[in-house]
Amino acid sequence: MGGPAVQTNPVVPAGPGMVYTPVQPAATASDYLVAAQPGDPDGMGKTQRRSLIVAVVAVVVAALVAALLVLRPWAPSPADYRMAADSAVDMHNQSNKISEQLVSAYDDAGHGGFSAHDAGELKRSIDKFDRMNKDFASQKALKDKDVAARYQAYMVKSRSYGNFSRYLADSAPIYSRASQSCKKVPDFGDVSDTKAYMGKVNDYVSTCKTDLDQLAKAPDKVLADYAGQASTVLGKMQDLLKQVSDLVDHLSADNLDQSMDKMNDLEDQEKALEGETPKSTDISMKLLAEERKANPDPAYLSLHQALEDKAKR
């Protein structure tokens, strides 16, 4: 196109007494790429500023990580350990309560005074113990690996003790019935003759054996084994009693000597049965061993002591 050329450095005419001054050319877009920006007096570009910010953030993050590693705000506090220690004491107290209830239950059952209702009360205490043990899992102190390991060891024992206690609770009413019926040995003075007395003895043995057969199915193995052995002995006793009754029924002057010899033989067999009869002291020792095996106290003491020590730090 043929228009006039545009001056790149136009001259503005000066007025009277003035000199000619050249007009500065307008800044171009490319000039702004290197020019200082507002708030950027040193002329740093965006890339440079971004690098500086990243460096500052990295330093801040590193400092924060270091502080977290030192302070460990996620770790249990002494107050958390104290709360857990107090809860552990509550669990232990509930365990002791169950132990006392079991002793009382079998004392009552031994006198025929323990019912299914009483067993229900005992099992409610056991259920509460189980809940308390499980609820302990929500304690903040379990974020501590050492405490968590001790708690797991305690839970193994507490479950064992809960099962042991529940089996005894379920067995107690059956044991109570057997204890009551097997203690009612007929008194010879209550009957008029030997034949009548033998009839009462047979009835007594039959009732006792029936209740022992039920106890032999009880959840607690020690009591069940005891009842099974005792029932076997009574079964042999029933056979001896039948033979004695037959001798008494057919006793006469003609067979007196023969009958007495037979009676002496039966008495010897009866004495031999005494050695087969399970002793109550043996049963008590086995129950005690069973309780010791399930006892959660050592595991509890380990857990509680660790919590107490950490609560004092």
Strand content is: under 5%
State mean pLDDT (0 to 100 scale).
80
Assembly type of the shown chains? single chain
Helix and strand composition category? mainly alpha
Please tally the β strands and state the result: 2
Described by strand count, sense and barrel closure, the largest sheet is:
2 strands, antiparallel
> How many structurally independent domains?
2
* Percent helix range: over 70%
Give unreliable regions as ranges.
Answer: 1-23, 26-36, 66-71
Write the H/E string, N to C.
EEHHHHHHHHHH
How widely separated are the two ends? 92 Å
Written account of the structure:
It is rod-shaped, with a radius of gyration of 47 Å. Helix 5 (145-182) runs antiparallel to helix 9. A two-stranded antiparallel ribbon has the order 1-2. It has two domains: 43-73; 77-313, no CATH class. The chain is built from ten helices and two strands. The protein has helices at 29-32, 46-71, 78-110, 116-135, 145-182, 194-215, 221-249, 256-276, 280-294, 297-311; strands at residues 11-12, 21-22. With 313 residues, it is mainly α.
